[in-house]
Specification:
- By secondary structure, this protein is mainly beta.
- Helix content is 6%, strand content 45%.
- Strands 1-2-3-4-5-6-7-8-9-12-13-14-15-16 form a 14-stranded antiparallel barrel. Strands 10-11 form a two-stranded antiparallel sheet.
- A hairpin with a 4-residue loop joins strand 8 and strand 9.
- The longest helix has 10 residues.
Length: 397
């Protein structure tokens, strides 16, 4: 298997990098980007806004503090054919559950599986050496506890396994292996006082810092290897801020408006290629970066360019441009039928994902079904026509 094939396998799963990018970009790819895929069709139908509306079995992903106050037992499952516009045989599966412990809080668990299909290994001449399967999964537990009637906190941890290469050797010499890591989450959720809109209206603000943990390595260092080393790649530590307003208009009609701001807490040294530890990236990921504005292959940025040299320019780009915004609206009729819509924006310098989302939901007795759809705003976007299907089951006591 060549270096090229391994690098292609690593790039294949890049979720933010799958969007169209401008020459001037600050995109920092990470290992295991499948951890960033939103698992539930409810929030993904609301512009990917979920940190402040996490109130079901999907709370371990969005905000473990959202588990607090939830009673009973619920199991949920999501299936999504991934990036269908690319024609790739990828699929995403997510199983989640929660169980209320009364005054002791609420526990949750989840299993995420990302199938990258079958890959073909080749040597440097293009001769096929065989095939192997690529897949990744994460298994986690979460816990939420209400500190007061309005304030709750939560935490969680997950084990991460990433098998991209099937143990294939690079150039028939350097062995590769599956990568493993773990991530820890911390979340807070606060529900404000009654605003007096409609029958009932209360705002919520929330915060979640997810996937704090060490990086992943797929291959050990070898003397003279300047392309692939045992240097670990960062996992996608993610910072989420969210706000929502839930308004019960009358006995039958309810509206929720939500907004999320997200940022990947990752920073990489341009000279050495090394990632900062997540606890350093909490600060360094906000710093401005030098980015290349030209499209000349092989050029790198070390100093700012001059205005009279447009073909070899570097520009300073604020770290704030790596923030993404998701906002959405949800309408429920009699807690039986829901309609959803939303908008997601990512700066052109940071991946350029921009799309509308739509969704619907049904609840009957103990069963719920949600569906969401992405309408990409760019031509030839790999995110076009992305569907998610979610099933929820409430288990009676």
């Amino acid at each position: 298997m060549t270096r090229t094939l391994l690098l292609a396998a690593l790039a294949l799963v890049a979720w933010p990098a799958a969007a169209q990018q401008a020459p001037e970009e600050i995109v920092l790819t990470t290992a295991v980007p499948f951890l960033q895929i939103e698992p539930d069709s409810r929030a993904s139908g609301m512009g990917m806004a979920g940190v402040a509306v996490a109130d079901n079995a999907y709370a371990p992903f969005w905000n473990p503090a959202g588990l607090a106050g939830q009673q009973g037992t619920e199991v949920s499952f999501t299936h999504a054919p991934w990036l269908p516009a690319l024609g790739a045989n990828l699929s995403y599966e997510h199983l989640s559950a929660k169980h209320g412990l009364g005054s002791l809080g609420t526990v949750g668990g989840h299993l995420t599986y990302f199938d990258l299909g079958t890959q073909t290994a080749t040597d440097e001449t293009g001769f096929e050496l065989g095939t192997f399967s690529s897949y990744e999964f994460a298994l986690g537990l979460s816990y939420g506890y209400p500190i007061t009637e309005n304030l709750s906190v939560g935490t969680g941890a997950r084990f991460i396994y990433s098998n991209l290469t099937g143990g294939t050797r690079i150039n028939n010499t350097t062995p590769t292996s599956a990568g493993t890591s773990f991530g820890v989450d911390l979340g807070v959720k606060y529900t404000g006082p009654e605003l007096g809109l409609g029958k009932s209206s209360r705002p919520t603000v929330a915060f979640n810092l997810a996937n704090m943990g060490p990086g992943i390595s797929y291959v050990e260092s070898t003397p003279g290897d300047t392309v692939l080393t045992g240097q670990p790649d960062a996992i996608p530590t993610t910072l989420r801020f969210g706000a929502a307003l839930n308004t019960q208009l009358d006995d039958f009609n309810r509206i929720t408006v939500a907004l999320d701001l997200n940022k990947i807490i990752v920073n990489r040294d341009a000279a050495t290629g090394e990632y900062d530890p997540f606890y350093e990236a909490l600060f360094t990921s906000w710093e401005s970066r030098l980015v290349k504005t030209s499209t000349i292959a092989g050029e790198t940025c070390t100093t700012l360019g001059e205005d009279d040299d447009p073909d070899n320019d570097c520009r300073e780009v604020s770290g704030l441009r790596s923030l993404t915004l998701g906002t959405g609206l949800e309408y429920w009729y009699n807690d039986l039928f829901a309609m959803r819509a939303g908008y997601f924006y990512e700066d052109p310098a940071n991946g350029n994902r921009q799309f509308l989302t739509f969704g619907t939901g049904l609840r009957y007795s103990l069963v719920g079904v949600d569906i969401s759809y992405i309408y990409a705003l760019q031509e030839n976007s790999p995110l076009a026509d992305q569907l998610r299907f979610s099933l929820l089951l409430n288990i009676p006591r």
